[in-house]
Design brief:
The structure holds two protein chains of two kinds. Chain A folds into two domains: 234 residues, Rossmann fold; 125 residues, OB fold (Dihydrolipoamide Acetyltransferase, E2P) (Beta Barrel), CATH 2.40.50.140. Helix content of chain A is 29%, strand content 29%. Chain A has ten helices and 19 strands. In chain A, the strands form four sheets. A six-stranded mixed sheet of chain A has the order 7-8-9-3-10-11, with helices on both faces. In chain A, strands 2-1-4-5-6 form a five-stranded antiparallel sheet, with helices on one face. The longest helix of chain A has 18 residues. Chain B is mainly α. Chain B has two domains: 260 residues, MetI-like (MetI-like fold, Orthogonal Bundle); 204 residues, MetI-like fold (Orthogonal Bundle), CATH 1.10.3720.10. Helices cover 73% and strands 0% of the residues of chain B. Chains A and B meet through strand 6, strand 7, helix 2 and helix 4 of A and helix 2, helix 24 and helix 25 of B.
Chain lengths: 373, 608
């Protein structure tokens, strides 16, 4: 399928409520595995449903290649049944009155595909998803994970140009979710379809996507590869939404000793007028030393007190306090620390994210800090 | 310059947007169907109500001299006559007072009896709880005036001619206050609506989160304190809701006061309205119907308001519904006895009395020679009109046939319309249309059946435009019944569609199914069950319905209920009782059958 392009898309449900989606520009390339990531209510599902044609636009345009599929200004709208897409619902939405086989071949029968070809196609997808042994059962007789596979098979059977997935793994337990993630990656490779995947789970997005679109309050916050999103968050929202435990943020404007120290440290490198609003560093970048002497030169440093050590199985979260302000560090090596111990925390310059007063990433700072290291 | 600029601006931008919206609205037939249905319901529900309200304020044919205006002109004469004039007391105020007395009496008794029974069934270790849970609901499945006829069979005295009641026959003349009027009507309505309290209150008790109770217990509260300070306050919404719904139902109750009130001129609003129609006082009938509707609307509005208020503190969706049973200990047998007595009074005695009366020549005489099957299957009887047993009477079979066809067609239509309403309300993109459909189909719920029938009479009795006069036809009964059943049908349809959600249909849309394909392959097959329920439930309630038919049916379109009422009027007691037994049997059998078919507890569905 050609690229799907959303330009300046707006969606409002009226009644004075804020726009569900505002000024959205998104280019989904052929063969891409794109995740729409964001907290609930951020407009990601609405975006997916607009691509599918289940919601119409308030303004803007969506086209697939040269074909305009939705544009209020042009008076154009192509119904969902004519878009040739596939959509897997969060609830699976299997047809309860049809067997698994009839669920799967429903779309092919609609298209009047000859019997032999239809059966071959159904056989192929069922086999790929390992559901052929349930073909004569009804959806209610299957477990959640099996229903999920049927929902996928039903859409794959018609060979859609793009597969849209609306939080398809959120109703599965942890182990099944892991399996299905691998399955989805395999399907993406095997069927070579474009996939647009909606989720609020950052790990799901990180592990699956070739690119991630982070959304908040109806707006696109950042579009990039998983590594971009994690290592170079475009703004504070992205920095704080992605990562667990969350990124440590220090505000330039407060008078707390730690924040002042960080501002001072930055000013020494960027100059006083750099317009720094806040500084962030991820927990794994926050390192701990017994004494100041052990801190490598050039790193930001401060004295702190260990207040808690939380083992998470294979890694540890260390909770620290500086004058009552909490910081989190993570480590994969058993920390030889005790609660109440006085230590030094330090961060390499390249691991520091600098944001301006509006919360946007200060790109100049990245260059300066990289050179300083 | 400015004006030429405006001309040069391409119009298509605005035009295209309108085209876009129109295309979205008409892309699928949903909207067109919604508009057609809105028009249909406006005609079948709104127009009759407006028509009878208009009757109340316009000069009716034949009243020109009294009102001092030409036919069709505006007049306040009917309002004056019903509310202020010297006859106003007989026409309106006394019936209103009687209605209120009966309703509040029935509410008090049914709350006291039903509340205790609900608690015994839901939360105690009384013997036979399961059996009582079903048995005590039976009165609600039977027509209320079954009990009125049974009462008559027992207590009828010499005040009224015809065959005396059993007590009179054995020489114990019951006083008028016991035989007719307020006392028996109140008792019968109370017994009839007790199941309602058991259902509403019982289900609230069962849903009650026992963790709330446990928390109070752990803090040291005794059983009584828990009941008074935790359980009862939380039950209040369910209780109030039962009160208001029983009130609304009493308001429209016709059969019981008709059978038991008439001999002592004890009129309630429903019978007063019936009388006005019978004596062709169309204008006054309009006023009375309007008054009944107004009271009904007020009651339902108060209920809706309270329900909204209650939602603020009601806890829902907790897991702690594994309620413990209170041990009755020494009171176990007395409690069971109490439930048994209520069952005997509300089901056993009335049905037994009716059944016995149909096989006895003389009332109250239990000599073997007095028993006969003549009233069921006799031939060449020495009576004036009913010369055969009821089962050989062609009138019965004609009435049964009418009942099945009229109620059947109406139920099928309303069931289908209900599912369609549900679909359209949930799926149309035009919200005002959905809101209108939802509300208009609910309107008959606010209008007691007898007032609704009067409204139909007012609109359809004479030719209006291209629509010929429908009075006396089967069609008017079918239409009125269908409209009257729409609240239940559309609610069932809407909730079924809500429960189904959009997803299954959208999934079909995504893989390429157009509207008709989705309807035939997805929506209707999935909704089959709720469609069957949506047809069966109204069918059962239609079979035992009286108030609509009593106004709109003529002898040629007699149904079982009006047929038996006619027999009562002609003093064919045994035959009338036999017909009522047949109706009761049909209603009960139908409920049980529907329950089997849908594997649900329909008794609970009947409560709403």
């Amino acid at each position: 399928m050609p690229d799907i392009v959303l330009s300046n898309v707006q969606k409002s449900y009226g009644g004075g409520s804020p726009n569900a989606v505002s000024d959205l520009d998104l280019h989904i390339h052929d063969g891409e595995f794109m995740c729409l990531l964001g907290p609930s209510g951020c407009g990601k599902t609405t975006t997916l449903r607009m691509i599918a044609g289940l919601e119409n636009l308030t303004d803007g345009e969506i086209h697939v290649g040269e074909r305009v599929i939705d544009s209020p200004a042009r008076g154009a709208f192509v119904g969902p049944e004519k878009r040739g897409m596939g959509l897997v619902f969060q609830s699976y939405a299997l047809w309860p009155h049809l067997t698994i086989e009839r669920n799967t071949d429903f779309g092919l029968r609609l298209r009047k595909v000859p019997k032999a070809e239809r059966e071959a196609r159904v056989e192929k997808v069922m086999k790929a998803l390992d559901i052929e042994k349930y073909r004569h059962r009804y959806p209610s007789q299957l477990s959640g994970g099996q229903q999920q596979r049927v929902a996928l098979a039903r859409m794959l059977a018609v060979n859609p140009g793009v597969l849209l997935l609306d939080e398809p793994l959120s109703n599965l337990d942890a182990r099944l979710r892991l399996e299905m993630r691998a399955e989805l990656k395999r399907i993406h490779a095997e069927f070579r379809t474009t996939i647009v995947f909606v989720t609020h789970d950052q790990w799901e997005a990180m592990t699956l996507a070739t690119s991630i679109a982070v959304m908040s309050e109806g707006r696109l916050q950042q579009l990039g590869t998983p590594n971009d999103i994690y290592d170079r968050p475009a703004n504070r929202f992205v920095a704080e939404f992605v990562g667990s435990p969350p990124i440590n943020i220090l505000e330039a404007a407060t008078t707390h000793a730690l924040d002042r120290a960080a501002s001072h440290w930055l000013a020494g490198r960027l100059g006083e007028s750099a317009g720094v609003g806040s500084v962030g560093f991820r927990p794994e970048a926050l390192q701990i030393a017994r004494s100041e002497a052990a801190v490598p030169g050039g790193s930001f440093r401060h004295a702190a007190e260990v207040t808690g050590i939380l083992p998470t199985g294979g890694s540890w979260i260390i909770e620290l306090k500086v004058d009552g302000r909490a910081l989190f560090a993570t480590t994969t090596e058993s920390p030889a620390l005790r609660g109440g111990e006085r230590v030094w925390v330090h961060v390499r310059p390249t691991a520091v994210h600098v944001f301006d007063a509006a919360g946007l990433r200060l790109a100049e700072a990245d260059d300066v800090l990289a050179r300083a290291a | 310059m400015a004006s030429s600029d405006a001309l040069l601006t391409p119009a298509p931008v605005g035009g295209a947007r309108w085209r876009y919206r129109l295309r979205l609205a008409l892309r699928e037939p949903t909207t067109v169907i919604a508009i057609l249905m809105a028009a249909l319901f406006a005609y079948l529900i709104v127009l009759p109500i407006l028509s009878i309200l208009a009757d109340a304020a316009t000069v009716q044919f034949g009243d020109e001299r009294r009102t001092g205006g030409g036919t069709g002109g505006f007049t306040s004469y009917y309002l004056y006559r019903a509310f202020v004039s010297p006859v106003a007391y007989d026409l309106f105020w006394e019936p209103l007072l009687n209605t209120l007395k009966v309703a509040f009496g029935a509410i008090t008794i049914s709350l006291a009896v039903g509340g205790v029974l609900a608690w015994l069934i839901a939360r105690t270790d009384m013997f036979g709880r399961r059996w009582f849970a079903t048995a005590l609901i039976v009165p609600y499945m039977l027509p209320a005036w079954t009990f009125a006829l049974a009462w008559n069979t027992l207590f009828k005295n010499r005040t009224v001619g015809g065959q005396p009641g059993w007590f009179e026959a054995i020489g114990l003349t019951p006083p008028d206050w016991l035989a007719y009027g307020q006392v028996p009507i109140t008792i019968i309505l109370a017994l009839h609506y007790t199941p309602f309290v058991i259902l509403l209150f019982g289900s609230a008790l069962r849903r009650f989160d026992s963790q709330l109770e446990d928390s109070a217990r752990i803090l040291g509260a005794s059983g009584w304190v828990v009941a008074a300070q935790v359980i009862l306050p939380l039950m209040r919404p369910a209780l109030l809701s039962a009160v208001l719904l029983i009130f609304a139902k009493c308001l429209g109750e016709f059969g019981v006061p008709y059978v038991l009130g008439l001999p002592v001129k004890f009129d309630v609003l429903a019978t007063s309205l019936y009388r006005s129609i019978g004596s062709r006082q169309t204008g006054v009938a309009g006023v009375l119907a309007g008054a009944i509707m107004l009271i009904g609307v007020l009651a339902i509005m108060v209920d809706a308001y309270l329900a909204r208020e209650a939602r603020r503190f009601v806890t829902v969706g907790s897991k702690g519904s594994m309620n413990r049973l209170s041990r009755l200990k020494g009171l176990r047998w007395p409690a069971t006895g109490f439930a048994g007595v209520v069952f005997m009074l509300s089901v056993g005695m009335p049905l037994l009395t009716l059944a016995l009366s149909t096989v006895m020549h003389q009332p109250g005489s239990f000599a073997l020679s007095n028993f006969t099957l003549d009233y069921w299957i006799g031939q060449d009887l020495p009576t004036v009109a009913m010369r055969t047993g009821i089962l050989f009477s062609p009138d019965l079979w004609q009435a049964a046939f009418n009942t099945i066809t009229i109620v059947g067609i109406a139920s099928i239509c309303s069931g289908i319309l209900g599912v369609l309403t549900g679909y359209v309300v949930v799926r149309t993109t035009i919200r005002p249309l959905a809101i209108f459909l939802r509300q208009v189909t609910f309107m008959p719920y606010l209008v007691p059946g007898i007032a609704f029938a009067a409204a139909y009479l007012s609109l359809f009795a004479v030719q209006r435009g291209p629509i010929p006069g429908l009075y006396g036809t089967t069609l008017i009964l079918v239409l009125a019944l269908m409209a009257d059943q729409m609240p239940y049908a559309s609610r069932a349809g809407i909730s079924a569609m809500m429960q189904l959600g959009k997803d299954p249909e959208e999934a079909a849309q995504i893989v390429g199914a157009g509207w008709f394909r989705r309807m035939t392959s997805i929506v209707i097959p999935i909704q089959k069950g709720s469609l069957v329920t949506g047809i069966l439930l109204p069918f059962i309630s239609g079979i035992k319905g009286l108030s609509l038919f009593v106004i709109l049916a003529v002898p040629a379109t007699d149904v079982l209920t009006t047929f038996s009422l006619r027999l009562v009027d002609y003093n064919y007691t045994q035959a009338a009782n036999a017909v009522v037994l047949i109706i009761a049997g049909l209603a009960y059998g139908g409920t049980v059958l529907a329950q089997r078919l849908t594997r649900t507890n329909l008794a609970e569905g009947l409560g709403t």
